[in-house]
Model the fold of this input.
Amino acid sequence: MASDIQNYANQRIVEVLASKLRRRQVVGSRNAAIETTLVLRQVVSKARFSNIDQLVDIIRSVGRRLVEAQPKEHTVGNTVRKVLHHIREEYHTAVEGTAAATKKEDFSISRFVSQGQPRKQNIPVPKSEERTTTLRENDPDDPDSFAKGLKPVLMEAIQDVLDELETVYDNVSKNARDHIHSDEIVLTIGHSKTVEAFLKSAAHYRNYTVIVAESSPSYSGHEMARSLSSSNISTFLVPDSSIYALMSRVNKVILGAHAILANGGMFALTGSLLAASAAHAHSTPVVVCAGQFKLTPLWNLYHEYGALDFSDPSSVLGFEEGDLVDKVDVINPYFDYVRPELVDVYITNDGDHPPSSVYRLIKESYDDDDHEL
Amino acid sequence: MTKAERRELQERQRAEKASGKTGSAAPSTPAAKKGRRGSLAEGLSTPGSAQKGKETKEGVSGAVGGGGGEDAGKARGLRIFSHFGLPKPITSHKGEIHPAIVRLGLQFSEFKITGANARCIATLTAFKSVIQDYVTPPNNTLSRHLMTHLSPQISYLVAARPMSVTMGNAIRQLKLEISGTDIDLPEQDAKDALCDKIDNYIRDRIIIADQVIQDTAGKKIKDGDVILTYARSSVVEKVLLQAHSDGKKFSVIVVDSRPMLEGKNLLHTLSSHSIPTTYLLLPSLPSIITEATTILLGAHSLHSNGAVYSRAGTAMVAMLGKEYRVPVVVCCETYKFSESVGVDGFSKNELAPINKFSTPPHSKSPQSLLSASTNENPYLEILNPLYDLTPPTSITAVVTEVGVIPPNSISSIPLALGRNMI
Amino acid sequence: MAVPLVSVPEFGLRSTHSQAISVSATIEEEPSASQEFNVFQVYQRILENEEIATPLAAILALTELLDHSRAGTMFELVKELNGGAEVLKTRTSNSISLNAGCELFIAFVTLFPHESDSFSELKTELVKQGQQYAKEALTYRHKIAELALGFIKDDSVILTHSYSRVVIQALLLAHKQKRISVYVTEARPRGFGVKTYEILTAAGIPCAMVLDSAVAYVMDTVDFVLVGSEAVVESGGLINAVGSNQMAIIAKAANKPFYALAESYKFHRLFPLSQYDLPTHHPDILSFPKPAHRSSPALTARPSVHPSIAGHVSTATEELPTWKSGLLVKSPFQMSMTPEQISRNPSVDYTRPDLISLVFSDVGILTPEGVSQYLVGMFAG
Done:
C-alpha cells in the first residue's frame, strides 16, 4: 500500500466528501458525481503505485468508503466504476505492444463462452514505437516510474469523465426538438434538472404545453412550473390526483431518473410509477431523460424495500395534527422503482436507448469486476 | 371588454335561449349552462374581486373572442380544459332566493359541505323549508307552479357549485312527486306530503341503503385484513366503523391527496375509534400497496357502463390495485347511478377554485404560487380537477344496497328492481 | 425410428428407474471407422456421476473421443467429432441440452488458434482444455447460487418445478443465510419433484408439494418462481421440463417474477418459433390415436385402473404424496395414464422470453435479450 503520508492526504479529502454525503449536503446526483470525480482526481494525482493493481485497489477503497457513506446515492459508485474503466482502458492502450507487459491470454472454453471467438493477437503496431518510455511495472529501482509514466494519461481520462458530466444537460437536450412536436401536451412530475433543460431547449423551436404534477409531499413541481413558465412555455400545474384524469389528453410523459438499473428499470421520484402506469394504461409513450452517469450495474436493489429512501414524515402529517401523531403510521418514501416494461426510451447524453439495451450499455461503460466495489 | 358590455352579451344570450325553449325545466338549465359555459364564463359581470375576473378570463375559450386580447400562444392548451369551467361566483339573483338556499350556496362555494351524500341531504333539507314557506299564487296550481318557483333556487345552487349527480337524481325524483300531486289536495296537506316524501327518499335511498351496504361490505372484511381507502367517503367511513364495532381486527391505510386533503378528516375519525391507521400521500402508494388486502372506495356517481366517477386520484388507486392483484371494491348507493356512459375524465369534471387550494401545506416557499401565476406570469396556469373517471376494468365489485354486483352489470339494475328509471 | 420411450435420464436418475423404464438397453457396437471406441458408452458412463449435466457429459465424451482419435488433420478431427455427436444425438430421445454441449465443444475446437505445428500436441492441448473446462464447470452451480442469493429475501416463498441440481444448490445456499419456504410441483409423469422435495426437507427447508394442476391456485402466495433449465435458446427463451411454460404464463398473469438458472454451457443456438418447432417435437406428440387401435386392450384411450400398469408407469407415481398430508400415501384406486399415453405427451416445453424476468448464469445476470449476445459471439462468423 502507499506510504502513510499519502494515505493521510487521501483520507482527508475523501473523508470530507464522505461526511458531506452522509449529511446529504451534496444535493443532486450530478453534483455528487462531479464531487466524486474531483476527489478521485486528487487521489490519483497524489497516489504512488508501482503497478496497475495497486492503483485499482486504491481507487476501489476510496470508492467503497464513499458508497458506504451514502448508499442510496448511486452516482457515486457509478463514477468510481467509470473512472476505473477508463483507467484500465488507458493502461491497456499504453502497454499494448510492449512485449514485457503483454500477458498471454489463456484461451479456454470458459473464456470462449464469455468472450466469444478468440480475437487476433495484437502485433505491435508502429504507433507504439513512438512511445519513448516503456512502462515497467514493479520496477525495484524506480518504483515511481510506472506511476509517472501513466499519470498524465490518467489525468486526461479523468478530465474526460468530468467534461462529460459537465455537458450532460446540453447533450441530453441536443435532440429535444425531434422528440417534442408542435402543440403537444407533455406531462412531467416534480423537478428534474435534466428534464427542465430538455424542455427548455425544445421550447426554442416548438410551441407546446407542459402539465406539471406537483408531486407531494416535496411539492417540487412548483419549482419546475415556475421555472418553465418563466421561459415562456405554457405550463399547467396540477395536483397528483389528476394525473389519470388528464392522461387521455397527454401525448407524452417525460420523467427524470435518479438511477437506471441494469435490467432497464429505474429509481425515480415518488409518483413516477403512478404516472408511468397511468401512461401505460392509456398507451402513452414514457420518455426518461437521464445522463449516462446514472447507469448503475446493480440488479437486486429493487427487491429491498429499504432501497427506497425514506424522508421526513412531518411533511405528510405535520405536528399541527398533534393528536394524530402518535396514533398513526406515516410513510414518506422518496423514490419509486419503475419497471422496465413501463419505460419506452431512455434519452441520455450518449443517444437514445430502449430499456432492453441498458445492460449492454452497462457492459460497455463499466468493467465486470467492478460491480462490487 | 368592459363589464357593461359583458353584461349585455350575457342578457342577449339568455334571451335567445329563453325564446328558444318553452317552459325550461330546472335540470336542463344547468345542462344548458354547462354547454354555454364558454361564453358565459367570459360574459360574467362580477361585482366581485378583480382576481376572480382574471381567473374567468383565463378559463375562457378563445371562441367568443373575449379573451382575444391575450397572447394566442398562451391560450394554446387552455381550450381543452375550458369546458371544465371554474365555479362562477354568486351572481346577483333574479327574483327571490330563499335564505336557506342562499346559505347553502355559500356553504357549497366555500367547500364547507362536500361529498355527494352530504350535499344531497343538505339540498333536500333546504328544499323542505322552501316548500313549507311556499305560497301558491292565485290562479295557479301547486303541482305546476312549485317547480317554476324552485328553478331559480336550483340555478342559484348550481352557480355556487356545479350540481352533483346525486342532487340531480334527487331533484328529478322531487319533480316527479310534485307533478304527481293531487290537484284537489289542500295546500298545506300537499306541502306536508311532499316533505314526507323527501324524508322518505333520504331515509330509504341514503340512510338505510348505507346500513345495508355497511353490512354487506362488512362481511368482506376479515380479521387481520389491511384495508386501503382513498380520501374520505362517507360510506366507506361508515363501513369501517361498523366493522370495527362488530369486533373485527383490521388496520386501515388512508391515502390522501391535494387539493382537498380530505383523508385527514377520515384519519381523525378512525384514530378516535382506535383503529390502527397508516397515512400517506398518493405518490407514495406503490410502496405500500403490496401490504393491502382490499381496497375500499367511495363514489360520487356510477355510470351505466360501470365506470366510477369519483374524487380525483381514485382512478390511480384502482389501477394500481388491479396491477398488484388487490381486489377493488366500490361502495355506492343506487341513487347515485347515472344513465350516461363515461369514457374519460374529460367529459365531465369540475375545477376547484384556485385561491382556495393553491398553497400547499408546509410549503417551503412563503410566496403563494397564486400571485406568481395570475399577476406576473401569464404562462402559468393552475388546474385542480376535482373528479376523475375509473374505467370498469379496474374495479372488482360494486357493493350497493341491492347486493354485490360486478361493474359491467350496473345497467341492468333498474330493470331488475322494476323501476323504469333510477 | 421407433416411438421414443420414456427414457433418457438427463436428470441423472439411475437405479430404481432404469429397470422400470426401459432404456435403450441394448447398446449395439458402433463400428466407426477404425476404432472400437464407443462414444455412447463413454457418455453413459460419465453420466453416472450425478453431478454432471448432459452437456458437460457430452463435452467429456467428445474429449475422450478426441483422445482416442487417430485423425491426422483438423478436418478429419472435426469430422470425427461431428460423427460422434451424431451418434449421441440419435441415441438419446431428448437431445437438446446434449446438442448444446456438442456444438459448444466443436465450435471451440474449430476456432482454437493453433500455433503449434504438431497435430498431436494440438490434440493433447484440446483434451486438456476439455477436461479443465469440465472441472471448472462444476463450480458454476455455486456461482449461480451466489448470484441468486441476492434476490432472495427473508421469508420468501419460492415455487420451483421438478428437479434441477442448480436450483437445489441455490435453495440450500439460501437456506443457510435466510428463511425461505419452497413449493415444489410434482412434475408428472416422471415425478422428479418428489426428489427435490426429499432433498429440501432433509436439509430442513419447509417444503410442500403442489399438484401440477394447482400451480395457479398457489401462485398468488408465492414471491417468485425459480426453475432450472435444459437449454437456453437464442431467442432468450427457455427449454425445460414440461410444465415450465405453464408456470411462466401463470406467473406473468399474477405479476410474479420468473427466474431461470442456467449454466453457460446450456446456451444453445436453436431458435424455436413455437412449441412445435422444437427438435423433440414429432407428429406423434399429442396426436389422436387411430381408431383401429381402440380394440386392443393394451392401448385403450381411456385411463384405466390397471394396477400392473399403474405400477409399471413409474415408481414415482406410487410414491406420490397427497397434497395435504405430505406423507407418502399409496392410494389403491389412483387412476393414471397408460405408459403409451404418456409417451404421446411432450417431455419438454419452450418458454417464451417475454415471460422470463431474468436468467442467472455463471457469466452474470442476464435479461433474456442478453443471452443472444453470448450466442452470437460464440457461433456467428
